[in-house]
Amino acid sequence: MSKKVILFDGICNLCDKSVQFIIKHEKENTFQFASLQSPEGKELLKCYNLPIDYTGSIVLVTHNNAYLKSEAALKIAKDLRTPWNIFRFGTIFPMWFTDSFYDLIAKNRYKIFGKKSDSCDLLQQNKKYKGSSASSNTI
Hints:
This protein has helices at residues 13-25, 39-47, 69-77, 95-113, 135-138; strands spanning 4-8, 31-35, 59-62, 65-68. The protein is an alpha+beta fold.
């Protein structure tokens, strides 16, 4: 099975900590990562008809789909080890409800958690999505 790619805001401290959390707690070597601001991130955004300057939420790219906001977060939770995978049960709530909660945090993430001065550098290079000219065929 091919890797799932998580696109995240590379200057957001909360997003960076979330990526490190996912790397530490994923069940298997499931995910690769790229910042939304990176060339690889912009390439994937374009492939899935999202604006290349999009930074409104995390994006999960899997097979031929791109998931945003709480839907992405809840799908990521399915691939985390116990006890963290319990968050997958957030799908019992309507999407408008979970997205409202997501949007509240996303809107205030810089105020609460701060910004990095530079884009995030993934510490584990084998987790970094490297992109390709045929992105949709490699995911």
